[in-house]
Every structure is written in structure tokens, then in C-alpha cells.
From TrEMBL:
<protein>
    <recommendedName>
        <fullName>Secretion system C-terminal sorting domain-containing protein</fullName>
    </recommendedName>
</protein>
<feature type="signal peptide">
    <location>
        <begin position="1"/>
        <end position="18"/>
    </location>
</feature>
<feature type="domain" description="Secretion system C-terminal sorting">
    <location>
        <begin position="162"/>
        <end position="223"/>
    </location>
</feature>
<dbReference type="Pfam" id="PF18962">
    <property type="entry name" value="Por_Secre_tail"/>
</dbReference>
<dbReference type="InterPro" id="IPR026444">
    <property type="entry name" value="Secre_tail"/>
</dbReference>
<keyword id="KW-0732">Signal</keyword>
């Protein structure tokens, strides 16, 4: 694969079971092409899905730039989803980082959509040839992806309780078994706070507004709550 200028046109397609992803973007770098990323049968060590263009045979067409293979995978160290381009032989031993999602979506088992956070162009690799970050106006991402900040695996907490709501300083959460950590998202999808779970959570530093609290348990289930910060 050539120093990528290639992935950036990715497109992803969804089957009836939403196990594939379709992505389209960066037509100025190479003609619009559709790439099908197939979800691998085994998730990564953190329970996140791994998606690879299929088949990985070394002859995947990549616009007018030759051949290339792509992967969408969670980077736990950097806490973000990444679009990767293989170095040329389908092994992904030293892949090129093309885009990464600025929201992180640590609670999501699948990648976020391009309307959640921002897929940031890695200009160190693309030389800026993609014209900026991915948005819904210049790209498309569909299939087995999350279309909200909380994602399809979130569950409502019928027996759990959050109070007070609205809140000024601290919220208390009771009834979530095996709670491990939490994230708080603003309504535009940005992650504003995260930490290990405690039944009493300090929200003094949050600006007034509406927020989503996502609590992740030890068995990777998530509980969601909406609260108002005065």
C-alpha cells in the first residue's frame, strides 16, 4: 500500500444483522469508492468489535492509487477508535493511522458514527489531502456503528436510582450492581468527565445544562441516566 493517501475513502455497508460497516469520504484524494469492513467473530481484549476490509487478499482496489486494506479498531491506550490502513501486505503489523475519533466512546462496543464526536484526519500521514476531519457533510458512515453517544448496548436501569435531579453539587446513584467506572457526556456528544465509579459523584465543575451519565459494570454492561446540572 502506498503511504496512505489511500484509506480515506472508506465506505461501509451493513447487512441485515449489522455486522458490516460502510464508509465513504475524501473523494478529492481518490475517486469515491465503497469499502466493506466485516466485523470479526472475536472481539478485542476489551470487548470492542474489530472490523477489517474483506477479503484481505492484497488486491483490494483503492481508487486510482493501487491496492490497500483497512481496519477500524479500538485503541485502549489512546482511548479512541481508529481508522487504520495496512502497510501493504494485509498483516497490519505497522499500519498507518488515517483517522481517529475524538470522542473516544469508551463505553461503546462498536465504533461511533461520524456524527458523534469528530473523526480527525491524521495529516502527518495524509499530508492534509483529505481536506479536514470527517463530518456528515463530507462523508458517510453506516452499518454496525453507534448513532448516539450511548450506543446500542446501553440498558435502562429500572431498579437504579439517581438523585437529586436537577443537581447543584453531587449526584448519588444507587442500585447499580458491580459498577466499575462512569463517563458523563454533554448533549452534543462530548465526553466531559470520567472516573472510577462512586455512589456519590461530584458535578460541581460542570456548566449548567443537560448531561448523560453512563455507568459501566464489571461485566461490560452499561446503565444510562440523564440529569440536569443547575
Amino acid at each position: 500500500m502506498k503511504k496512505i493517501y489511500l484509506l480515506l475513502t472508506v465506505m461501509v455497508a451493513a447487512n441485515a444483522f449489522a455486522q458490516d460497516i460502510t464508509f465513504s469520504g475524501c473523494p478529492n484524494l481518490f475517486e469515491t469508492s465503497n469499502y466493506v469492513f466485516t466485523k470479526q467473530s472475536t472481539p478485542d481484549a476489551y470487548g470492542k468489535g474489530i472490523y477489517i476490509t474483506s477479503p484481505v487478499t492484497g488486491d483490494q482496489p483503492c481508487g486510482g492509487l493501487g491496492t490497500c486494506e483497512f481496519k477500524i479498531q479500538w485503541n485502549n491506550t489512546a482511548s479512541r477508535w481508529e481508522f487504520l490502513a495496512d502497510e501493504g501486505d494485509g498483516t497490519f503489523a505497522a499500519p498507518y493511522l488515517i483517522y481517529y475519533n475524538s470522542t473516544g466512546s469508551a463505553s461503546a462496543a462498536n465504533p461511533p458514527s461520524n456524527s458523534i464526536g469528530t473523526w480527525v484526519e491524521n495529516t502527518a500521514i495524509t499530508n492534509g489531502d483529505c481536506g479536514g476531519n470527517l463530518t456528515t457533510s463530507n462523508s458517510n458512515l453506516s452499518g454496525d456503528v453507534h448513532t448516539t453517544t450511548l450506543g446500542i448496548n446501553d440498558i435502562n436501569s429500572e431498579k437504579a436510582l439517581l438523585f437529586p435531579n436537577p443537581v447543584v453539587d453531587y449526584i448519588t446513584v444507587l442500585g447499580v450492581a458491580n459498577a466499575k467506572d462512569y463517563q458523563i457526556y454533554g448533549m452534543s456528544g462530548q465526553l466531559v468527565k470520567s472516573s472510577k465509579f462512586d455512589t456519590k459523584i461530584n458535578v460541581k465543575d460542570l456548566q449548567s445544562g443537560v448531561y448523560q451519565l453512563v455507568i459501566t459494570t464489571a461485566d461490560n454492561k452499561t446503565h444510562q441516566f440523564r440529569f440536569i446540572k443547575k
